[in-house]
Amino acid sequence: MTISNGTSVSVRELRLNYGNLEVLKTLNLDVADGEFLVLLGPSGCGKSTLLNCIAGLLDITDGQIFIKSKNVTWLEPKDRDIGMVFQSYALYPQMTVEKNLSFGLRVAGTPKAEIAERISRASQMLQIEPLLQRKPAALSGGQRQRVAIGRALVRDVDVFLFDEPLSNLDAKLRSELRVEIKRLHQRLQNTMIYVTHDQIEAMTLADRIAVMRGGVIQQLDAPQTIYNRPVNRFVAGFLGSPGMNFLNGNIGADASTFQVGDVSVPLERYTFEQSVSPDAPVVFGIRPEHIAVGTAASAQPFSQNVKVEIMEPMGSDTLVWSKLGGNNFAFRVEAENHLRTGDVTRIGFDPARASIFDADDNRI
């Protein structure tokens, strides 16, 4: 099998079964040299399982795995030239930070001078130089995770694998370490594959995101493409906080409108990706942040008066809940808005920014 020179990790026809349970389903994936790829999805979708297969921690049922054009399908993890960072830190509690960082190198027989040089470089990058003589029990969660990342860095490998490394940290630490991981990738330019269920981590870190569900990659593309042009309703609903508004209705009789209740949305500006039949049942999706409010709404191709039912202050802005065509409908307004529960306001949007899904939940 020929693997492109620009490909760092290649997964071919990979399947993994646990008895009769099919966990990964004939999966193919190519990760480019120096790419930051995020595997994103809900719990149980197979993202950590796929990462563990690439790492060699799980034996696959069928298929092949290549790292730097080398077939590593049946190689031990230590022979795959990877560095892995786990959710649980996995540090040796009786060893100092310095000993934790050097342990793998010492076992491999790396010369002492080279070990010292690698530890110095990694600790400078991660700003853990003052912690080298401490033991893990004396470190905060964020410091422990920096050490865990450092232990992978000192191996000086081409591919780094991250399995939800920030999920045990509080929101502030997650934000800080997310920035550090981004800086690290920009500096090292190594290939990184990162597993998370957190869409903010995925959107901010990734060059490309692979959204997974049920052991299948639903969509693999750049973050903004996935966000703005989701291939199906699952992807559309999984990304976005708050989630996309979904309106259940029908294509109009002349296929130029979307009908939901007594509301008619013009579709002249919407680009259909396949032919659509008049009167076909569809789901119309539009994100809350794409909704104009008040006087700005009247300038949009579609606008309508709605009644404010619930308001959720979010700090920087406020999420407003109303109804459109009998469906729940949310939109964002500035925090300093003057709306109150029970008010009637005008909302509007450009259908060109919408996503329409057929009865099988695929984008049309």
Summary tags:
five-stranded antiparallel β-sheet; 21 strands; 2 domains; OB fold (Dihydrolipoamide Acetyltransferase, E2P); alpha+beta; single chain; Rossmann fold; six-stranded mixed β-sheet
| Principal-axes shape call | globular
Tell me the name of the CATH class of the largest domain: Alpha Beta
Low-confidence stretches: none
Measured between the Cα atoms of the first and last residue, the distance is 35 Å
Residues in helices, as a percent range:
10-25%
Radius of gyration: 25 Å
CATH superfamily of the largest domain: P-loop containing nucleotide triphosphate hydrolases
H/E series: EEEHEEEHHHEHEHEEHHEEEEEEEEEEE
Largest sheet: 6 strands, mixed
**Total helical segments:** 8
Roughly what fraction of the amino acids lie in strands?
25-35%
Structural class: alpha+beta
Mean pLDDT: 93
Task: Compute the number of structural domains.
Answer: 2
Question: Strand order within the widest sheet?
Answer: 6-7-8-3-9-10
CATH architectural category of the largest domain: 3-Layer(aba) Sandwich
Beta strands, count: 21
CATH fold-level topology of the largest domain: Rossmann fold
Subcellular location: Cell inner membrane
Membrane topology: Peripheral membrane protein
Keywords: ATP-binding, Nucleotide-binding, Transport
Family: Belongs to the ABC transporter superfamily.
Tell me what the structure shows.
The chain has about 375 residues and is an alpha+beta fold. The protein folds into 2 domains: about 5-235, Rossmann fold, CATH 3.40.50; about 240-355, OB fold (Dihydrolipoamide Acetyltransferase, E2P) (Beta Barrel). The protein has 8 helices and 21 strands. It has a 6-stranded mixed β-sheet with strand order 6-7-8-3-9-10, with helices on both faces. The protein has a 5-stranded antiparallel β-sheet with strand order 13-12-11-14-21, with no helix packed on it. A hairpin with a 2-residue loop joins β1 and β2. The longest helix has 18 residues, at about 170-190. The protein is globular.
